[in-house]
Amino acid sequence: AQKITQTQPGMFVQEKEAVTLDCTYDTSDPSYGLFWYKQPSSGEMIFLIYQGSYDQQNATEGRYSLNFQKARKSANLVISASQLGDSAMYFCAIADSSYKLIFGSGTRLLVRP
Amino acid sequence: GAVVSQHPSRVICKSGTSVKIECRSLDFQATTMFWYRQFPKQSLMLMATSNEGSKATYEQGVEKDKFLINHASLTLSTLTVTSAHPEDSSFYICSARVGQGSYNEQFFGPGTRLTVL
User: Fold this and answer.
1) Which of B59, B105, B21, B54 is nearest to A1 (CA)?
2) What is the dihedral angle through the alpha carbons of B62, B63, B65, B68, rounded to the nearest 10 degrees?
3) φ, ψ for residue A53 (rounded to 5)?
4) Given a cut of 70, is residue B100 above it in pLDDT?
5) Which of A60, A35, A57 is nearest to A46 (CA)?
6) How many Å apart are CA A84 and CA B75, to the nearest integer?
7) pLDDT 10s digits, B35-64
8) Which of A90, A88, A42 is nearest to B93 (CA)?
């Protein structure tokens, strides 16, 4: 069974600074995908970034980058130059060969002006 | 591209009634659709996996007679909450998968907020 652990229920960051949101995972499947989603108060799930288990390089999407450490089974999200609009819930998720997404408990990020 | 819609976005109903939620892939054919439920301040929990033309596969602990899923076409899946009760009040989100082999092909709908009085 897949499992995602997010140990930070809440995080604060100063506007324009970088922040790292932690995510560790557990799976017995050699092939899997890791995701980060942003969920604002409206509830929609906004896809941020994806990392495949066989990808050699860390994924980057604009201000988002994924620090993928396969041996440690971690997939931390780094947000650079935080903006006020980044305040939201952030979920890490894993998909295995069934393509089901299993989500972590989430981290609420608050960006301070 | 890759837009998924849900209807309705918000519904309030009386206890004992049934509520149908539609999930549509607007610009692609979805081989698989997933239904998730999210209680306030909690994470998304997978309820069931739905494939066109076949019976849905429910996750452990999800009552299949309570949450009826129909996947009639490659662009439409419906979730019916039968005899809804206040404890069924939740945020229901669907996702649709294109199915070309990559994990990164699942797109979420905007969600439906159900309140049962």
Assistant:
1) B59
2) -20
3) -65, -25
4) no
5) A35
6) 36
7) 999 999 999 999 999 988 888 999 999 999
8) A42
pLDDT digits (tens, 9 = 90+) for A11-56: 999 999 999 999 999 999 999 999 999 999 999 999 999 999 999 9
The CA distance from A26 to the nearest CA of chain B, in Å, is 17
Beta bridge partners of A51: A34
Residue A81, SS3? coil
User: Measured between CA atoms, how close is B42 to chain A, in angstroms?
Assistant: 7
Chain B residues near residue A2 by CB distance under 8 angstroms: none
pLDDT tens-digit readout, B69-92: 998 889 999 999 999 999 999 999
Q: What are the backbone dihedrals phi and psi of residue A87, each rounded to the nearest 5 degrees, phi first?
A: -65, 120
- Is A29 within 8 Å of A96 (Cβ atoms)? yes
